[in-house]
Structure formats: structure tokens, C-alpha cells
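Work Package 3 (structural annotation) set out to generate three-dimensional models for the target panel prioritized at the project kickoff. During this period the team completed the workflow that converts sequence records into C-alpha cells, so that structures can be stored uniformly alongside our sequence database. As a representative example, we reproduce one entry of 116 residues exactly as it appears in the project archive.
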Amino acid sequence: MDGIIGLGRLYDFYGELLTVHQRQIYEAAVYEDLSLNEIAKENGITKQGVHDLIRRCTRTMEAYEEKLHMIERFQRLQALCEETSTLCQDASLSREELAAGTEEKLQLMLQAISQD
């Protein structure tokens, strides 16, 4: 995942699987936007050590996503919820069409949740 938003999303889903030390360094870099030098100074490690730790954490969390697909599922569910909301606001649909459409979206959501 690229960009600060992608890194933040990875951390939101998989950050708790990192060690306390890894989380502190990663949060300082991604959320607090501290420089590698600032983080290194605060933690008594080298700038290269900080850089390596952040890369290792990112690769670890990306590997979790490759295996678990939690972010992918979340995004799918989010899109289905938005589609369902749009469907419910469509005044041109009959009650039966609305019921059929929402039932279809619900089934797709359940499939997304239960995928292994």
C-alpha cells in the first residue's frame, strides 16, 4: 500500500499485531509525521534503524493483508453499504424492487464477511 493513507489503513487493521516498540516507531513516523532523525534521537537508535523498522513493519502488515484480506473485505462491504444506501434513497423503485435490491446487497455482504 502506498501513501500515508494506505499506511494508516494497514496500521488500523494490523497495527495491534506489531510489538509495542514497533507500534511506537511506526506511529511516530506515520501519525505524528516525525522525521527519521527525530524518531532515532527519541529512541536512541540510528536513522537507518528507524528506516529499516518502518519498512519491516510495513512489509509485515502487507503480508498479513495478503493472507487475511481484511482491508479488501472492509472496502467491499463499505462499497456495498453505499450502494444499499443509494438504493434505499431511489424514490422511483417500488417496494418489491427495493426489497429485492436490498436482499441482493445483504447476500453479497454476507458472502464478503464469510469468505475464507
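Helices lie at 3-14, 20-30, 36-43, 47-68, 70-89, 95-114.
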